[in-house]
User: Fold this.
Amino acid sequence: MQTTALTFDYELLHTSKKSRARVGRIHTPHGIIDTPGFVAVGTNGALKALDNTVVNDIGLQLMFCNTYHMLLQPGTTVVKNAGGLHKFINRPFPIITDSGGFQVFSLAYGSVANELKGRGTKKNDGSVMKITEEGVLFRSYRDGTKVLLTPETSVLAQKDLGADIIIPFDELPPYHIEKDKLVQSLDRTHRWEERSLNCHLENPQNQAMYAVIHGGIDPDLREKSCRFLTKLAFDGYAIGGSLGKNRQEMYTLLQETMPFIPREKPNHLLGIGDLPSIDMAIPLGIDTFDSSYPTRSARHGILLSYKGDINVTKRIYQNAFVPPDQNCNCLTCKNYTLAYIHHLFKAGELTAMTLATIHNLSFMVQLMRNYREQICADLI
Amino acid sequence: MQTTALTFDYELLHTSKKSRARVGRIHTPHGIIDTPGFVAVGTNGALKALDNTVVNDIGLQLMFCNTYHMLLQPGTTVVKNAGGLHKFINRPFPIITDSGGFQVFSLAYGSVANELKGRGTKKNDGSVMKITEEGVLFRSYRDGTKVLLTPETSVLAQKDLGADIIIPFDELPPYHIEKDKLVQSLDRTHRWEERSLNCHLENPQNQAMYAVIHGGIDPDLREKSCRFLTKLAFDGYAIGGSLGKNRQEMYTLLQETMPFIPREKPNHLLGIGDLPSIDMAIPLGIDTFDSSYPTRSARHGILLSYKGDINVTKRIYQNAFVPPDQNCNCLTCKNYTLAYIHHLFKAGELTAMTLATIHNLSFMVQLMRNYREQICADLI
Assistant:
């Protein structure tokens, strides 16, 4: 059985002679995603401070939208009525949505980052009311209404949204979890993912579904997860769950897990997109990365560059009448100087965030293009 | 004596047979301003939520920047070092700056709007330290340093900024003021404007200077102001000071004042740009209007239209899958629906402000084009 619609396909173009790094193309109903590729996060159907025509001009090939947020505002029915996300947000290029599980369980358990920073494990602000085999009942943070998120409701919501790539419903267990509980969580996640896949297959639409591989930082459970999920008719594999408390743990985890992920399908590393992590993960064979890092850091005045982050709010840029990067062809670098962007941040102008975001996203597009060239030349 | 640089000139194209309305062209070193024309306010060298390449695309011909704000951040020396405002902010088209007096005296006396709303007259938050014949000493709200704003420092700051049109230093007396104090204020403003003009002429640069006609709502004082200022070598005339407590008072005031303003030079109505006021003032012969109304209201979810304001945050737009205006060619109307913009406002996305601002500015550009066509056809 194969869920892949005719328009979804992974094409391997080159595998490095030096590592597991590879260059490929994911074909989708809304065009090609070159891999390795960066996926920006447009939670509510917009990249913060940008309109989607600008995003299209930047050349960002895949955009991430969050089902949890779209479910609560405007509601997936509105998006369906609009003719789907692509039409609603005016994006003719590929979109991926998640299941909503990540956000719901972050509310229940706290995020791994919060957990590690000692902001409390098992934080529960009351919005998650009940977790059962069926799914999760929680209260909308917007209007207090009860929402039941299950494998089926998540997939049907994602059918309404109509993204090119969708994600099955899974549990996000906390980083600090006993082995037996992690095993239980993994088994339930596998049942939920299978239910998600069945619901997906019973409601055919021109979408691909990636499995989410779990198992925390336990290599045996990661292997178990791969073995279970790769037997099912998923179109690709996302690596989710806790990826460790630091980059070294994530490296070890990916090194142990990647050999169990089929090479003939695309894979995705969920929620990771800082530059050192990308640089570490590409030689291990990761195809796509999503992260709000480039856009969020932009809004705080951090401009990405090959020479390291530029904190444009620093006083040393007050008279810097040069673009952020003279070799960058983005709208920001072609038209504005560090001094002007510095001024806009100091003056509290929203435009500062827009210009910084345009540069950082353009940088990511260019960075990934460079990685692809280096892989093709077997330099990575 | 004539201050007009070769590149600054007013060209009268048509005077209505029906009213004092007129169509003209102001030629500046950075291109043409068609009149009647709308001038958007980019206080800190940026229209809020837009970058200047977008503003250029919209076709906005004249942009207002505030000397007071630029003086305190980034400082006019930085702008001078950048090669002037046009280069600093990447705007190849005309720019006008004010003297800074309006902001300083608003701090001292409170704005007319605040005054009329009973938020206190003669509000003084301590930032204005001393008003003398020399000028005004105030504290920077940014870093507490003392700043002396005089006719000469204001003009020299505006020389650093390098706008196409600059404004002499004047006093903004409160709306509620006794006649004798208003007379004293007017006389001092005239002395300040003459000092400003002299400083302007002694430091020649390719800029034009508009006088600011004062006199509050006293028709005799307005006439006196016109008679005094039109004898001096100004390139145009701005109408400033208190314009009355409502539109009717402003109408009366303009009707009485406009006949004393020379027809062979351009004029400008300071700080007024709401649609009914524009509609009222154009038949009286006003050439340009500046206002933050279209941009500020956009950020609050108000979309301008010929059928009246659209409050896009209202629930009725949740499923409105049509552009704000089907006849509008702006980026927002060509690419997005009311439903999407509604969603972005509800989700608190900055992009909502950007899209609304683009539409409202485009609307103003189109509106003024329509007025010019109607005047040329003697319909106004």
Observations:
- The first strand of chain A starts at residue 9 and ends at 15.
